[in-house]
Amino acid sequence: MKVIFIFLTILLFAADLAAQDKHIFSFRDNEFLLDGKPFQIISGEMHPARIPREYWRHRIRMARAMGCNTVAVYLFWNYHESSPGVWDFRTGNHDIAAFIRICKEEKMWVLLRPGPYVCAEWDWGGLPFYLLKIPDIKVRCMDPRYMSAVRRYVTRVSAEVASLQCDKGGPILMTQIENEYGSYGNDRTYLETLRKLWREQGITVPFYTADGPTDFMLEAGSLPGCAIGLDSGGSDVDFEQASKQDPHVPAFSSETYPGWLTHWMEKWQRPDTAGILRDVRYLLSHKRSFNLYVVHGGTNFGFTAGANAFTPVQFQPDVTSYDYDAPIDEQGNATPKYYALRKLIGEYSGTGLPEVPAAVPTMEVASFTLAPFTSLWDHLPVAVHSPQPRPMEDYGQHSGLTLYRTKLIGHKSGSLTITEPHDYALVFLNGKFIDTVYRDGGKWTVKLPKSDVKDPVLDILVEGMGHINFAQYMIDRKGITDRVTLNGMTLMNWEIFNLPLDEGYVQGLKESRGVSREGVFFRGSFELSTTADTYFDMSGFKKGVVWVNGHNLGRYWYVGPQQRLYCPASWLKKGRNTMIVLDLHQRQTAEVKGARTLE
After folding, report:
1. 29 partner at 20 to 30 Å CA-CA among 115, 131, 495, 599?
2. Do 410 and 519 fall into the same domain?
3. Domain total for the chain?
4. C-beta neighbour count of 575 within 10 angstroms
5. What is the spatial distance between Cα 545 and Cα 562, in angstroms, rounded to a whole number?
6. Residue 4 is inside which H or E element, if any?
7. Could you report the per-residue pLDDT of 323-368, keeping only the tens digit for each?
8. Are residues 118 and 242 in the same domain?
9. Each residue's pLDDT tens digit, 203-239
10. Residue 10 confidence (pLDDT) above 60
């Protein structure tokens, strides 16, 4: 009897603790309430998929020490579902539930931003690539094929996060429905359906939407009863727009921008600190809630960087680094902007802030040599035959390269036009490199020289550089998306070689003798007596991809601005380390070294 009594006492004590840990987050007109009391959200956004898992806690602590009480978290659907019904919520930094639990352990609330579409400068805004196999798919609307996939996603994500809501003892205060929908479409039925789906799967915390502070965006993108997020809100005029849309729900600045994104061929975006301090001072002094997008950006490892396009012939791919000029830089360091914001937030908080965590160690790596060891031409898979070129998504591929090959019959020289090349193409005739074609700008014609070969062989090697993640041109398949013509004649009968450059492909590379044309794999090794974060300087190369000990660091390109790629300490090891590089243009041996900073 005594044992039973002790057991019951323990159960009651545990239940009491659990009850004390549950909280109610709600609205009262234009106020957020936590357990019935006014609550100001001071959030800093970061994305677990862009941060090595071993640094999650450090980055969360950095945000808290800057004065944040909340972390906003994007989920990237295509990062978790690689093909229909194939999920990963456990390996590496896919474990979103673990990240949210760490937020709670570090006394931080969470704003959950699960999409299904999120933008975020992430490849295709997080939507799953398998949808692009459907020729006439329509996304972000009530297309039944899209919504079937959405239902599966909402069900699976809810299973991960429902128990982590604040009314269940977790840190999640609110969940966002879609993202900046008023910048894209006006299907309110779609938004209502999303809300219903989340509710059916046990999401009980309040919802919010997020849109630009204009009347048409707010009308198309908001929902009755949902808090109104403003991207961004930094003035009375902005918040008045939200109040006109719905005066009975609170509004907040759901994306206040301390930095900005950078595309290839641009200078690094470096917004001044005065602007963000002005916006945050306004928000703090008016007791407005806000979310800094982003407090820490991280890295677009592998092929996860997205792209922008605002005209049919425009293409602006994002660089690999997602440093974003954020208060916490790519490697996790506090910047001058961080300390300025910490000081400002501290003045309004009325309480002392935690000490800033120690910086994560960095190191230089002595220069080492990368030499050619094989060619992608020596590792072509079995070809698929097609009357006309088809995009890589038709074959279940969404990144990497696709090689298109045909023999020239009839016209054998002249004006070769690729319609449309998505995104960067190298043209070869009889194995000789002729020219490149870049998607941006619509100049897709090159001159093919005359050849003495009876049946010249045309090769077009196309690199996908990230699917468009924002606005109306999001249906963005990769490779050759329509046709190839020579002097107006449509070229037929193609061999298509899929080169996804995935882990299996790279691991299977075998050394070969000589390199006859562009598309060379380089290999080299370096010794380490200790490990720390570093940036590998690729300025000795031209355009390609880097793998270190099997980990894909991402793309580099001589056009800039990024010449150095971030490598976390956990991807390095004491002793011998191996680097493999695929460069699309370089054929000569070159040196690489590790530096401490992005620039």
Report:
1. 115
2. no
3. 3
4. 10
5. 13
6. helix 2-21
7. 999 999 999 999 999 999 999 999 998 788 999 999 999 999 999 9
8. yes
9. 999 999 999 999 999 999 999 999 999 999 999 999 9
10. no
- What would the pLDDT profile of 266-278 be if each residue is shown by its tens digit? 999 999 999 999 9
pTM: 0.95
Q: Is 392 helix (H, G, I), strand (E, B) or coil?
A: helix
Q: What would the two tokens of residue 512 be?
A: 């070969």
Round to whole Å and give the CA distance between 25 and 103.
17
Domain-ending residue, one of 478, 499, 520: 499
**435-459: average pLDDT:** 96
591 annotated active-site: no
Contact by Cβ (8 Å): 507, 547: no
Q: Name the catalytic one among 255, 330, 420, 518.
A: 255
Same domain, 263 and 407: no
Give the H/E segment covering residue 215. Answer: helix 215-221
Active site residue 180: yes
DSSP assignment of 319-385 equals: PSB--TT-SB-TTSPBPHHHHHHHHHHHHHHSSPPPPPPPPPPB--EEEEEEEEEEEGGGS----EE
Active-site residue, selected from the candidate residues 81, 121, 178, 180 = 180
User: Count of residues for the chain?
Assistant: 599
pLDDT recorded at residue 515: 81
